[in-house]
């Protein structure tokens, strides 16, 4: 086989890097389950027409076909790899609604695929972690408060800098725009969503050109987007702009309830930011974007919001609220910026030395006894000199080497050089050495 050519956009971590990713996934999974979310996994493919329903993602979808389907003669539907976990969730809820209990709290950690240009923090194949609460016909507002608090807890347990979760409520913008006579609400939201990238002057031009705003309406929309804070003062600053509609007041009430609850539970983490628009048109209430403090150049690592219609079967509608973490994006930054390292590249805590190939069976018996007690153990690959076997363990980061004797065994901590008598039926390594750990750097 010729030397392989790397494919850009498809990350493959080395073992020590994979240990960091596994730690991140374990923390997320554990936190989600502590809050009552059930894990699911959906198929990797969906019908292409379902993936392209919004009409804006055709360039991102990887189509799937069988090599022997000559000329496209198969009667099977065209399939594509899912580009997020929301479309599969909508289908899953509709398909299994009769077997689910609502509100349905689910988390999902899977690979997704997007055919976009790879760049820092953006991949063609990556792992995503989603949490959603889906209701049947109705979904109480308190879930819009719960979701960012769950995510704040999960992210605070990861080896990353503090996070800032910026929140807004789509009802505020829609109510405000209606109050100033701006009719193309969706167009205005799409323009405001570009504020951080292109600045207020360019956004004002977009508001006038694409959303039909007058210069005065564009100025007012930008005034609204400039407001931020973490208490009820946010609502007062919005009201000071002189616009009042029932929808605006409803959105302000919900936003204040969210930021005040968050300030009590996770002080300094959640802030109202009325520039957060989330340009997708299916959001109807709270919206969220999360950045790493000091790493804002990475953009949002976790985003989402409330949607009143995840899916509908014609007779019943399923509203929901959810957040999604770009796990690969986050792990790439952790590794690239040296934010954390794994204590070793392999799970092995003990390497059992081999005195000679004739004695390998005895070494394997010791390893089996240790494994039976939950201690990750490997056996040396060759009966080389003990110094070489110790160096092999050291290269892998294995902390202990086990030596067999005629009348008893000894185990050596190769980091400190300490060596002691040991019995495979009773010896246990310190808890912190039993499995690889991930440390902040």
From TrEMBL:
Molecular function terms, GO-annotated: histidine-tRNA ligase activity
SUPFAM superfamilies linked to this entry: Class II aaRS ABD-related (SSF52954), Class II aaRS and biotin synthetases (SSF55681)
Domain Aminoacyl-transfer RNA synthetases class-II family profile: 20-347
Catalytic activity: tRNA(His) + L-histidine + ATP = L-histidyl-tRNA(His) + AMP + diphosphate + H(+)
UniProt EC number: 6.1.1.21
InterPro entries, per the entry: aa-tRNA-synth_II, aa-tRNA-synth_II/BPL/LPL, Anticodon-bd, Anticodon-bd_dom_sf, His-tRNA-ligase, HisRS-like_core, HisRS/HisZ
Location of region: Disordered: 415-441
Domain of life: Bacteria
Keyword set, alphabetical order: Aminoacyl-tRNA synthetase, ATP-binding, Cytoplasm, Ligase, Nucleotide-binding, Protein biosynthesis
Pfam families the UniProt entry points to: HGTP_anticodon, tRNA-synt_His
Family, as annotated: Belongs to the class-II aminoacyl-tRNA synthetase family.
Subunit comment: Homodimer.
Official protein name in the record: Histidine--tRNA ligase
Originating organism: Oceanitalea stevensii
């Amino acid at each position: 086989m010729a030397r392989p050519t790397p494919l850009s956009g498809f990350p493959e971590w080395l073992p020590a890097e994979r240990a960091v990713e596994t730690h991140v996934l374990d923390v997320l999974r554990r936190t989600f389950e502590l809050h009552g979310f059930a894990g699911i996994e959906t198929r990797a493919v969906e019908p292409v027409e379902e993936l392209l329903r919004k009409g804006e993602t055709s360039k991102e979808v990887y189509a799937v076909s069988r090599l022997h389907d000559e000329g496209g003669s198969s009667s099977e539907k065209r399939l594509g790899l899912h580009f997020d976990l929301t479309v599969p969730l909508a289908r899953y809820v509709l398909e299994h609604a009769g077997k689910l209990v609502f509100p349905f709290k689910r988390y999902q950690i899977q690979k997704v695929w997007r055919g976009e240009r790879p760049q820092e923090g953006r991949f063609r194949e990556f792992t995503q972690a989603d949490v959603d609460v889906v209701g049947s016909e109705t979904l109480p507002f308190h879930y819009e408060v719960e979701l960012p608090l769950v995510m704040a807890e999960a992210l605070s347990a990861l080896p990353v800098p503090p996070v800032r979760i910026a929140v807004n409520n789509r009802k505020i913008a829609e109510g405000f725009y209606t109050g100033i006579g701006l009719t193309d609400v969706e167009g205005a939201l799409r323009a405001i969503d570009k504020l951080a990238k292109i600045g207020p002057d360019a956004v004002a031009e977009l508001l006038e050109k694409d959303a039909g705003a007058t210069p005065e309406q564009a100025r007012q929309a930008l005034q609204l987007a400039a407001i931020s804070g973490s208490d009820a003062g946010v609502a007062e600053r919005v009201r000071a702009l002189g616009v009042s509609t029932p929808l605006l007041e409803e959105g302000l009430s919900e936003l204040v309830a969210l930021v005040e609850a968050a300030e009590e539970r996770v002080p300094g983490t959640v802030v109202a930011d009325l520039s957060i628009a989330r340009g997708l048109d299916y959001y109807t209430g709270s919206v969220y974007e999360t950045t790493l403090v000091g790493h804002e150049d990475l953009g949002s690592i976790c985003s989402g919001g409330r949607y009143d219609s995840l899916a509908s079967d014609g007779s019943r509608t399923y509203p929901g609220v959810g957040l999604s973490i770009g796990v690969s994006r986050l792990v790439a930054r952790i590794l690239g910026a040296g934010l954390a390292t794994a204590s070793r590249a392999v799970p092995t805590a003990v390497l059992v030395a081999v005195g000679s190939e004739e004695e390998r069976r005895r070494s394997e018996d010791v390893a089996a006894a240790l494994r039976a007690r939950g201690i990750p153990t490997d056996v040396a690959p060759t009966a080389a000199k003990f110094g070489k076997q110790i160096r092999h363990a050291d290269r892998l980061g294995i902390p202990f080497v086990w030596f067999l004797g005629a009348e008893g065994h000894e185990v050596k901590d190769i980091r400190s050089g300490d060596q002691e008598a040991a019995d495979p039926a009773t010896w246990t390594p310190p808890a912190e050495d039993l499995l690889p750990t991930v440390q902040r750097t």
